[in-house]
## 1
Amino acid sequence: MSHPTAGPLRHALATRARVVVETRWFTGAVLVAILGNAVVLGLETYSGLSERWREWLLLGEGLFLAAFTVEIGLRAAAFADRPARFFRDPWNVFDLVVVVLAHLPLMRENATLLRLLRLARVLRAARLLPQLRIILVAIAKSVPGTFSFLMVGALLLYLYAMLGWMLFAEHDPGRYGSLGRALLTLFLLTTLDGLGPVVHEGLEYSRWSVLYYGTFVLLASFVLVNMLIGVVINSLDEARAVEGAARPPGGEPGRCPVPAGGAYEAELRAKIAEARRVLDELEAGLRR
């Protein structure tokens, strides 16, 4: 059986933690810590600096881990009155996993896993930078469309590679002597790098090479690339819409935006005042 004062205490803890978490200085401090962690991780790649400043780098790593632990503790405390909502935000889950794993002995004994885990902390900057977060969400949303694009592109490469092998294998075995070489040649040509010399060499043994390369470049470098750009732009628009719905101005993701002005705001303020009055009466009754 829970203590009768547990509810008000959790509410008070969540309110105070939320005030700290939603301040600009807190967000700025966390961003500075993330960037500092990235700098320290980069310095460790230089063997001379790593050996000379080993103790200071280890101290910095410990301080950053402590700072991230305090941060995730405050973010979790902000949801003390509604713990389930904390885990509804994927960024909260990601932050919690990264911090908790860093404290496990198994991770700290494995240098490679520990470096990967510390590298994952750099990704946490995305939750503090709205534009970067939108781009990451857009990339995730574009995966299904990108997969379809890759399937179409692979089919196109295969067809043109087989056609190139049949037409040019005898005259240009270095580029079309096998299916693998033909695929590599065409893949490099999608970037239009070295297209001129290849076309000129092809004209020496067949005029049809102009039609072959022209249609391939048109389909692979223009049509397919523009299709991919369209998929990414559409995903970016969806990500902006999701971010706008999930994050009100100056608030945390997952909270509903409140329109400013009008009868709705006045009604909402009245409900908040009534809720506060009820909580005050409940707290006063518990103290008697």
Note: The radius of gyration is 29 Å.
## 2
Amino acid sequence: MNHLSDPVLMRQDAVSIFQAGISAADPYQAVKRYLTPELLGDYTKVYLIAFGKAACAMAQAAQEIIPADRLAGKGIAVTNYENVTDIDNVDVIGAAHPLPDASGLKATQMIAGRIGNAKENELVLALISGGGSALIPYPSGRITLQDKIVSTDLLLACGATINQINCVRKHLSQLKGGGLARIAAPAHLHALILSDVLGDDLSSIASGPTVADNTTYADAIDIFKTKGVWEQVPNNVRQHLEQGMLGNIAETPKPGDDVFKNTGHTLIGSNSISVNAMLQAAKNLGYDRGLYSDCLNGEARNEAEKMIIHAKALTLNKPIALLAGGETTVTLKGNGRGGRNQEMALAFAIAAEQHDLSNNWVFLSGGTDGRDGPTDAAGGMVDQQTLKRMKQAGVNPIELLENNDSYTALKSSNDLVITGATGTNVADLQILLIRPEPKTQQNETRMPKVGNAD
């Protein structure tokens, strides 16, 4: 049997292609490539700070490059608990994601206190990666950490986009939306950035702590109102945003502000780089390749159906890999567990049956950080037998989808993809492998082990 025609090996290929995308976003190697002697210049001291899901790997690389006698004390790295590792001469602090916690607040206060002492002939080197928004909470005014948690939770649950969530975060924080640059001035500031945002908008990555912000307090209020949750927003947050809109609280730094005159940035990794790596991996495995989308967004279940409709319209003469990168959303209506990638995978399996996607196929959707929503899974991988396995396990996939309980559904069919924390984050990747073989030639086969939960 040709290796591309074996459903088990197709699943293994999907995992290999996914791993190629993750490897292309390796934060340690990216910092090694871009942190040059020219960038370090002749500054008398370098303040090393890192935050995000890739903070440890990035800080490790940086401290190996920066001469010890030029470091302004120990560096600070703030990352999610799963990615915490010890680094010489760096204080590593674990914090919560996607909802902030007290540990993240304490770490952010340390960062602000450290870089607030930086002088004009010194460099603040900021290593920024996805997840930074939640990991470095620094509430403004009378806003409490709990106020920020409630506000973030409301936005996550109502299907707000990452840009909408970041707009609000910038206007509730002393650090985001250019706040870090404001604190670091008059020192020089350079950020090495690993992007988890589609289009690589620097003002959106970790809510843009080192770049100018074009959004306003009025925009933040409008987001809450448009999503229909303004009345549920904590009083301190509502009052802060309203006072900001009235001009009684300073806006975030805008383009042209003097705080940015000594600020620079280098983009060292992104979702598009990972998608290109997947395209090459698929070619190496013998698939015809097709870029489905390099900016996939929208409601996860709707995007799954659109991808199926696109696949059905193709004329297939040989196995093909349709690849995508992006970040979908989920509007919560139930109380189940799962993330956007698991929901997309479950919705794909259901819609594939409804639309009679007849060719043999495997679909994987996963987060490059290894964590999809509040679960231990990176995402899900489904095939033509997924719904059958779920029903044999006694679960109703449609009911579970409606309850946003994709984790339970995929676990029952052994279709969770579990990688563990990857130490990087460049949003999500999707892989659809299809081979032009009639259903009648399919054979039942054992499932490969892809790291499922016990």
Note: The chain has a mean pLDDT of 92.
## 3
Amino acid sequence: MKKRIVAEILLTAVFCSAFTGCGNQQAAAGNESNDMEAVVPGSEPSTETADLGDQDNSDNGVVELTVWSEPDNFDTLNKMIDSFKEEYAGQAEFEITLAEGSDSRTKDDLLGDIHNGADIFPFADDQLSAMVAAGALYPVPNADEVKSANLEASVEAATINDTLYAYPMTADNGYFLYYDKSVLTEEDVQTMDGLLAALEAAGKTFSMELNSGWYLYTFFGNTGLEFGINDDGVTNYCNWNSTEGDIKGIDIAQAILNMTASPAFVAQADSDFIANIGDGTVAAAISGVWNAVSVQEAWGDNYGAVKLPTYTVAGQQVQMSSFKGYKMMGVNAYSKYPEWAAKLADWLTNEENQTLRFEERGQGPSNINAAASDAVNQSPAIQAVIAQSEFGKLQRVGNTYWTPCSTFGDTMAAGNPTNQDLQEIMDILVEGITASAAQ
């Protein structure tokens, strides 16, 4: 678990150095520590309404709450927390601390030491099942109100067995194509072939994090091959090594190798391409809205964002797919002040604060009213993720998915340097993806 740092100290650090936010990528299942022995899987803490003043007052009436967040969001969250304190002034004295956390590791950090975890925390929807199974989330007390305020799909993503376990916060947790309009035309970005050819001619590059299963799925999603999580909620099914059908597994592997052979292709981490946009070498990249502010600052009026292009596989043009998702705020079932924590989580995700989050961080709202605003409708990044969502699916994967995809992606990015048989490569990939959690 990361060391918890008081907000004032971290804000000073933010002033002194640059932090890089990250999108939802790998959601590795965490191992529960001995602290979790008292947790009954699937159990639900009581949500019976009680007078907030009846909560534990052993701290002289001071309600102490900790909120995890990525540092880039601290300034915005502090504004939200200040308005929360104003709203409930006189009902309690609050000491609310912001502590550094990674949205993509919330589940791991929480289940690793739940009793010392934050009271409120953001996370992506793919982490919900594991936290619910561990009894780690305090169900939403005002579920009907929250459901009616947010997009239906975002509510579904925060719900298990008809119980709403978290507060929808964003509806933009997917990826799409950023491009520099001074280098690429609207026609260029329709196909991967056209994109790479134009970049080669311009001496520029296209960036993609190829060794992440989060992004690698883009090549498989619309090919007719199948992948997903089994009913056990732990293991995966996958036939990406299929030798039958119009598009076979080796066809996709060869298509990826053809792409990586281009001098315009660069395989690098999602967090690294921003620097290359700044120095002018990268003119296109696959990423998400978490980088929208940085991309717009770098490209200015030449900032473009669209759905992913098609790519050539087995002689066909196939629309690149994507994982899509939602982010939400959860409340620790073991919070000392669960009802106040629930009120704060509700406040941090209400219409006003989702609007503020969009204005300051470029994050797409799940709140119905906030999402319908003119400003959101005019955001290239938000409109791109909406357009791409037609070709995506919710990320529901077992933990054994990530490592085989990383190994496969590294091999493809290197151009299959040992000339390994492609069918063998695909068989190894699928064997790893579908392995039991115990293997």
Note: Residues 74-87 form the longest helix (14 residues).
## 4
Amino acid sequence: MSDIPCPIAHWAQAEPERLAILTPDTCCYTYSAYHDAVGAVAAQLSGDGVQPGDVVAVSSPSPAEQILAMMGIMRLGAIAAPVALRIPSAARSDRLRRIGARRLLTEGGIDIAGPPRATNAVRMPTDHPATIVFTSGTSGEPKAALHAYGNHYHAAQAANRNMPLAPGDRWLLSLGLHHVAGIAILFRCMVAGAAIVAPDVGGGIVEAVERYGVTHCSLVSTQLYRLLGDSAAHSALAGMKGILLGGGAISEALIRRAVARGWPIHTSYGLTETAAQIAATEPGAPLDTLITSGRPLQPGTIRIAEDGEILVRGDGLFQGYLRDGRVERPEVEEGWFPTGDLGRFDSEGRLHVGGRKDNRFVCGGENIQPEGLERALCRVPGVVDALVVPIEDAEFGHIPVAFLRMDGGPIPSPDKLRTHLVGELERFSIPKRFLAWPKDIDDDVSKADRAAFARRARGSL
């Protein structure tokens, strides 16, 4: 077993007055105060009977409180399990049961008061279980992914080498901590000695960037789409140092628009199981690179199997899925983890992600990969996002139906769309119907729920 100095404790000793967390109220935290608050949470939990290795769930509308709770849980040696606020109570109870949570911390459930603590004796075991994060569940039941402290720490180090982050920088916590990409922001900042900007839930990104002097942020496709339609965002985001795009496929149309705005974007590839990104583009990458997922952040951590599946390994790879009290991690030879994603490397070593193996369907005896259709649709003028789902059909088995999100204008006629696609797609794969992007489907998440879109498509027939 190896261990490392706690990064929070390190900065509390090295630069105690440097800002660590900025909040909407006047209660901002220096690294010294951050360290003391984390220690107080750990002491409170220990006094309440929580032991190292216990699972403690966290669900609070206060991002700052969530940060302190999660770091205090890890400081104690217990396992932090962030739970989304928006999931139904029955689903929440089921998740807590599945992971064997000892207790649930909600708003006001932690006490950060306590005496200052020594800053030179806190070390964190890198192989100690630290977090449980549920996968998106868009292709099945959400899985409980267990990460060790070192998984997050080493992933943050690799990310910071590619996308420089330094003391004085400020990263906006624009993603929920129940997503691994949200946790990644905490680790990148404390490893680098940068500050986390923890705004109010529901607060605007542009407002936060301007108010707090944000230098970095992470965005998913929906957030990027909305910001591109916000005139106030144009200059605000152009002045930042880095904007990391991830959480699923980002359409080429959106990337082109962001580049035209002069925004310093990075595209990436990662998953819950790799503690966020494992490949990304470098600063100042040209457009032809940005429409890929970039290169592996560490050599030898990504390869392509014979059937085209992306396999990953490395220091950031999770410990496994919690199932019935056991930890299980599917592997192929030599520790490679099968992601379920299809991809390829180009001649420059850049990763191109083709889509999910389990999204593939058969139409009239031919295989169709919906993500390929979506990329072609996003090259139609005016289309900024597309999603293709299979619908059962008596003659063909399944037929493709496309949802289109337009850049303000109406959906082109089916004949115009098909004329554009004929030159790019085989005729059997061209969608049979084109529908408007639903306004009432919750797309405020990192990955679109294809099952929800399929239900909507069947209902439109």
Note: The mean pLDDT is 90.
